[in-house]
Amino acid sequence: MTEPALKRTYGRVGDLLYRFDQYLLVGGRSATTRRVYLATLRRWAAAVGDLLAPSGSSRDDWIRARRRSVGVATFNAEMSALRAFYRWAHFMDLSETDPATFIPHSTRAPRRLVRVLNEYQVGALLSAPDLQTLIGFRDHVILRLVYETGLRASEVVRLELGSVSDDRTVRVDAGKGRVDRILPISEQMLGLLDSWVMLRRATLPGKSAVLFCTHRGKPFRSGRSVWEIVNRYAREAMGLARGYESVRRVARQKPWSGQYPHLLRAAMATHLLERGCDLRAVQELLGHASLSTTARYLAVDIQMLKREHAKLGR
């Protein structure tokens, strides 16, 4: 097949995106990154027409429109998707388009105010599910596990029945950033998980080996299911809590917002640090590679974290 014919064959959007997705998969990109990149490229293709040779006016108009309509972090992620795609296409000799000529550089996102639940609010949230029902008990175990371990929503849905060990640890395989973690849990948490596993096997047998599942015994489709669970109980438990109106507004406008699960994650990290937990341990529990990432989850300043980190190294 000649080179022009090859390019015409792969010019179909579906073929291109499939090949690019396989490239991302082999490169070890997470399922979330691949999903975001492909969704961005589908929107981009609808606007510019020819993925391999986007017209100047349509591509510039789309980029300007996205810059105005989405947040800085989302815009940066979309530009990263386009940049990665055209670098791949150029490497594969499918396109001569140079992303540097039209894709803007990433801009620094303004630091968001960290909202950390106090221990009373966390207690109210954990007490919200009805423990007399199967689903209520499941939700309580999920909420307690997220608070105690700082697991991400996407990591919760990937846990399997064999992820929990009798030595009071939970194994998290290939989390965000492709980092495996072994997380400690309390004796009470282990008891709750053991009780849930017995209930799950007795009432929701199914064929799936996932730890948490739907009322039909099916795996959760994605971390969004955990977001919905946490959001629902947070609204019930803290519906009148002062200072959280903006969070509730986001949850209403964007039902799959990660605000509430990350509030629990931030609460776990901040409460541990306040109790004198080793900073390195907090960083490892969260699965972060850098202090700057950890700082976004804590109600503390990055400079303070650096000072504490320096003390630990003495």
TrEMBL record:
Q: Which PROSITE patterns match?
A: CB, TYR_RECOMBINASE
Q: A single Gene Ontology molecular function, please? A: DNA binding
Q: What is this protein called?
A: Integrase/recombinase XerC/integrase/recombinase XerD
Q: Name one GO biological process term.
A: DNA recombination
Question: What organism is the protein native to?
Answer: Thioalbus denitrificans
The protein's matches in InterPro entries, at most eight in alphabetical order, are given as:
CB (IPR044068), DNA_brk_join_enz (IPR011010), Integrase-like_cat_sf (IPR013762), Integrase_catalytic (IPR002104), Integrase_SAM-like_N (IPR004107), Tyrosine_recombinase_XerCD (IPR050090)
- Domain of life of the native organism: Bacteria
- Tell me where in this chain the Tyr recombinase domain is found: 112-310
Alphabetically ordered keywords of this record: Chromosome partition, DNA integration, DNA recombination, DNA-binding
Describe the location of the Core-binding (CB) domain by residue ranges.
11-90
Matching Gene3D superfamilies, A to Z? Intergrase catalytic core
